[in-house]
Design brief:
Layout (H helix, E strand, L loop, with lengths): L12 E10 L2 E5 L2 H4 L8 E7 L2 E9 L11 E3 L3 H7 L6 E8 L10 H8 L2 H9 L2 H12 L4 H16 L19 E2 L2 E2 L5
Antiparallel strand pairs: 1-2, 1-6, 2-5, 3-4, 3-6, 4-5, 7-8
């Protein structure tokens, strides 16, 4: 599956994994030995196949750090990928992937879009930073428990972007930042 110059030295990682549910999300958590082959313990962009169906996605760290346990990565396959791969929560899937330096654009949350539209300087810097930096900002903004704290993060992000800061500071990229499927920065256990 070597398709770009960036992937020339990147090994293909193949494994079988079970899809499971956490709340309403379908999750694929990489086996620890597969995750250990990735270049980063933090978020990582990969391209690959699931049951032979191509995909490209950002892997989120699971944030699990316990004695004798290695951390891993996970992602939530979208419904289109699940349908095309003939897979659902509870199924085992065949996965093959490689890390890539070609980051896909994150989906910018509406509240952040509105905030950026109020500040031409922040919006210009947002457009100038890399997709990886935009992922960092979005993960930092969403990694909170309450709407009030999220709004505060958006305000701080806007202020920092206006001051020329290209990335959030003091943010551990090795933790799980999706509050819908995590607690205390770690991926929850499956519900199915």
């Amino acid at each position: 599956m070597r398709t770009t110059k960036d992937q020339e030295d990147t090994p293909t990682i193949s494994f079988e994994a079970n899809l499971f549910k956490i709340n309403s999300w379908t999750i694929l958590r990489l086996p620890e030995e597969a995750s250990a082959k990735l270049p980063s313990r933090g978020m990582t962009m990969v391209s690959g196949t699931m049951n032979g169906v191509p995909f490209k996605t950002m892997l989120e760290p699971d944030g699990r750090y316990a004695p004798g346990q290695q951390s891993s990565h996970w992602f939530s396959p979208d419904q289109k990928l699940l349908d095309e791969a003939g897979a659902a929560a509870g199924d085992s899937v065949e996965v093959s992937m490689e890390s890539t330096k070609e980051w896909i654009e994150p989906e910018v949350p509406e509240d952040l879009k509105r905030a950026l539209s109020t500040s031409p300087k922040a919006e210009a810097l947002w457009k100038d930073i890399t997709p990886l930096a935009r992922w960092d900002w979005i993960r930092w903004i969403r990694a909170v428990k309450t709407p009030e704290t999220r709004q505060k993060h958006i305000e701080v992000a806007l202020d920092k972007l206006n001051k020329g800061m290209r990335r959030p500071c003091c943010f551990n990229r090795n933790l799980c930042s999706e509050p819908s499927v995590s607690k205390n920065w770690a991926l929850l256990e499956p519900t199915q």
